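Our working data are protein records whose layout never changes between entries. The record below serves as our worked example for the rest of this section:
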Amino acid sequence: MDHALYSKSNPYPSELLVNRLMTQGSDKETRHFELSLKDSGLEYLPGDSLGVLPVNCSKVVDDLLRTVGLAGDETVLVNEENLVLQDALMHRLACTVLSKIQIKKFNEIAESEKLAELLQISNKEALIEYMWGRELIDLFLEFPQSGMDAQTFIDLLRPMPPRLYSIASSLAAHADEVHLTVAVVRYDGHGRERKGVCSSYLAERVGERIPCYLHPNKNFKLPADPQTPIIMVGPGTGIAPFRAFLEERMATGASGKNWLFFGDRSQKTDYLYGNEWSDYQKAGVLSNLDLAWSRDQEDKVYVQHKMLEKKSELWRWIQEGAFFYVCGDASRMAKDVDHAIRRIASEEGSMTDDEASKWVKGLQKDRRYLKDVY
C-alpha cells in the first residue's frame, strides 16, 4: 500500500459523493457518507480510520471576530507563516472547544477573579462544569476585552485537529470509495446554537472536495484465518467498522461465523443499515443478530443486556476461538460490555472474579479481544 503521496500534512481532496440521513424522525442525526478515492492510489483495510481536516463554519468565525472586535483582514503569524486572520480562523485554527489552558491564557489578559477561582486545583469539578457547552466566544462575551490585537487573540487558539472516523466500508465491496457513519453534533447551549466542527462540516456538503487521509489501525483487524468466528459489539456509530468487516467477509468468501450486537434508541428511527443486516442474514453471512433498543420499551435495553441473555452461546463461540470486537463509546458502553464479558466468564466458565479478570486479560494478550473506542 502506498500511503506516501497523501498524508495528514498533504491530504487527498476527496469528492463527497453521497451524504444520506439515516435517522428519519429521530432526535439524533446520523449520516452515511461516501467519498471517492479515485486515482488517489490510497488503499485501506477494514478496521482502519479516515482522517478528515474540516473547515470552520463561516458564521462561527464571523461571530467570533465581531465579538473580539477584529476585522478579519489583519495579518497574523501562525507556525512561522504569515496569514490573513480570517483565513487562519477558517482553515488552520480550532475556534470552538474550550480548554483549561485557553482559559488560563485568556485570564492572564482578562484578570477575572471568577476565572482565577475556577482555575484553582480545588475547583476542578466546577471548571469542568463551566466549560461544558461553552466555546471561546463565550469568554469574550462574559469578559469583554476591547482593544485585543489580532496576534494576541490568535495565540489563544490551538491548531485545528483532524478528526478520525472508523471506516464503514470494504474496498473489496466498494472500489475507489471510502464510507463513514457519523453522528452530527448540534445543540443549544448558553443561549447560542452550537454544532460539531467536523460532523456539521460534512453534513452540510455534497459534491465538494473533502481533505482527508488514511489512518491505519493494526490493532483492530479481522482474523488472519477466514474460518475464525467473530463477535462484534457496535451500538450507534460504533457499527461503522463492522459494516466494513461484514462487507469484507462476504466479498472474500470467508467461511467464519459472524455475530453482530447492535443497539440504539429506537428500531423505527435509529436502525442504522438495518436492510443490509437483513440481506446478510438471508445470504447466510450474518449467523446471529441481536438488537438492543433503549427506548422501545419501559426498561432500557443495551447491548450488554443482550450479551448476558445469550451468555451460553457467546461463551461457546469464544471457546471455539471467536474474536471479540467492541467499537463505540469508551466512557460507558465499552466498560459495560467489559463487565458483561467478565460476568459471562464467571458464570459460564465457573471462574472467580480474579480468574475472570485474568481470562479477559489473556484474551486481550492473544489479540482476540479488540477495541476501537473513543
In short: The chain has three domains: 12-54+162-215, 58-154, 230-373. The mean pLDDT is 95.
